[in-house]
Write a structure and sequence with these properties.
Largest sheet: 7 strands, antiparallel
Helix content: 10-25%
Radius of gyration: 22 Å
CATH topology of the largest domain: Naphthalene 1,2-dioxygenase Alpha Subunit, Chain A, domain 1
Bound molecules: FE2/S2 (inorganic) cluster, cobalt (II) ion
Oligomer: single chain
Distance between the termini: 12 Å
Strand content: 25-35%
Shape: globular
Strand order of the largest sheet: 11-17-16-15-14-13-12
CATH architecture of the largest domain: Alpha-Beta Complex
Structural class: alpha+beta
Number of strands: 17
Length: 339
């Protein structure tokens, strides 16, 4: 599946940029190969329109925000958040023609990020109850480009066979390569949910982060996949500590994804500093990144195209669900082989 060849993927919400980044002016982003510009309007609300002026195609993201509207850097036409041209400095009398406009997109703020949906949404933005629970603090972790397909990243999160190899220096137990059976598995309207207990190793940083002396522990894990490229992994440790990771692989183009990751924890800065929590997750995510960037970005939805084992069930369900959705919408899978 090549993400830019599947119009259905334009019907989902994706987090594209931390809200705070818009405080210093308009910012460009490429979502499913669509160049967009984001800024804060007069009410301080994020807005998104096509990053191409309707006059001579200049990039609006090179312009300035003035009174909540974006002013094109080329001849100074200004557009509001709905993409309507509201000012033409060269026009001294008469109305601005209605055709002076650019496409605008649905845009919302959630969890400290700006979310965009390019077309009529099929699902709402995922609801994460812990994000509004005062027992939890939010730690922003990573915002960076990964050169891999979002689906590779999604299935990796539910793949219990990889930690023993990929994460053997952080938490995987190389001597115990047989992955645990899930305790609970459910397909949902929006994706899937899986619960399992994963025996892990605690290195020095993690002992401190988990406020734990032991070298071995278990992760009581609940993974949720939100179609197409968002997951949460809620890890509860035996001492009651919860480390919930939110990860989105926002599709930039066929070969790259914007990784957006934050975590929610029910402990305090005094118990584990944000810096130390990020430091551990940094090493773990880079271990995954190194492998995932080596995989083929054209992830085949057809099961027969790759080989599988029992622990690949979540990845197989993801393929089935996405293929089913594409079929339902009369689209079908479009990959390199589909011409
Ligand atoms: Fe934007 Fe001319 S190209 S105002
Ligand atoms: Co991993």
């Amino acid at each position: 599946m090549l993400v830019t060849r599947q119009p259905t993927l334009r019907h989902f919400w994706y987090p594209v940029i931390p809200l705070g980044e818009l405080e210093t002016g308009p910012k460009p982003f490429e979502l499913l190969k669509e160049k967009i510009v984001l800024w804060l309007d007069g009410a301080g609300k994020p807005v998104a329109v096509r990053d191409r002026c309707c006059h001579r195609s200049a990039r609006l993201s090179q312009g300035k925000v003035i009174d909540g509207n974006i002013r094109c850097p080329y001849h100074g036409w200004s557009f509001d958040g709905a993409g309507v041209c509201v000012k033409v400095p060269q026009l001294t009398h008469g109305l601005i023609p209605r055709t002076y406009r650019v496409d605008s997109y649905r845009c919302e703020e959630r969890y400290g990020y700006v979310w965009v949906c390019l077309d009529e949404p099929l699902l709402p933005i995922p609801e994460i109850p812990e994000a509004s629970d005062p027992q939890f603090r939010q730690i922003h972790e990573f915002y960076e480009v990964w050169h891999c397909a979002g689906l590779r990243l999604m299935e990796n999160s539910f793949d219990n066979a990889h930690p023993h190899f990929v994460h053997s220096s952080t938490f995987g137990v190389e001597q115990e390569p047989v992955p645990p059976e899930p305790d609970f598995f459910e397909e949902t309207e929006f994706g899937l949910r899986m619960k399992y207990i994963l025996p892990v190793f605690n290195n020095t940083v993690q002992k401190q982060n988990l406020q734990m002396e032991e070298t071995r522990t278990v992760r009581i894990s609940e993974g949720t996949w939100y179609m197409p490229f968002i997951r949460t992994l809620k890890i509860t440790y035996p001492n009651g500590l919860i480390h919930l990771i939110f990860t989105a692989a926002t599709p930039i183009d066929d070969r790259s994804s914007q990784l957006v990751q934050f975590c929610l924890r029910n402990d305090t800065e005094a118990e584990a500093t944000a810096e130390s929590v990020i430091a551990f997750d940094r090493v773990v995510t880079l271990e995954d990144k190194a492998i995932l960037e080596g995989t083929d970005y054209d992830v085949p939805l057809r099961i027969s195209k790759e080989q599988h084992m029992a622990s690949d069930k979540p990845g197989i369900i993801m393929r089935h669900k996405l293929a089913g959705l594409l079929k339902e919408r009369g689209e079908g899978e479009r990959g390199k082989d589909e011409g």
